[in-house]
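Hi everyone, sorry if this is the wrong subforum. Our group has a chain we'd like a structural model of before ordering constructs, and none of us has done structure prediction before. Sequence below.
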Amino acid sequence: MTAYSWNPLIVAHTAAVLVALGLGTWLLMQRKGTVSHRWLGRLWIGLMAVVASSSFWIMRDGYSWIHGLSVFTLITLVSGWWLARRRRIALHRRNMLGLYFGALVVTGLFTLLPNRLIGQAAVNDWNALMATLN
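Answer:
Right subforum, don't worry. Here is the predicted structure as tokens:
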């Protein structure tokens, strides 16, 4: 039995996370300040806003530290965009790196815990894969 069941909102949240993770990695590796960086950066901000705001409807067991992180993420997204618009690039860079690693990578690792939907799916899928290979 999983802690959560897959529903359209969780699927959309997960898809937005995966696309944001890939796009964020791409943006970090590419040249900064280009037209494509700016447009893809806006797309990344939109994806992250979907991820953060959808968490309020996904979690059903009251408020937790994740909700605080979601609020912080939304505020930091606006701040990062504002810093870029004001050409405060060093602060913008730190802001976005912090979001990428804090809100995506570290928080993403928490989803692999055994009591979480993704963690259970990963363990069950891994066990099913190993069973078919034996």
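For your construct planning: The mean pLDDT is 85. The two ends are 24 Å apart (CA to CA).
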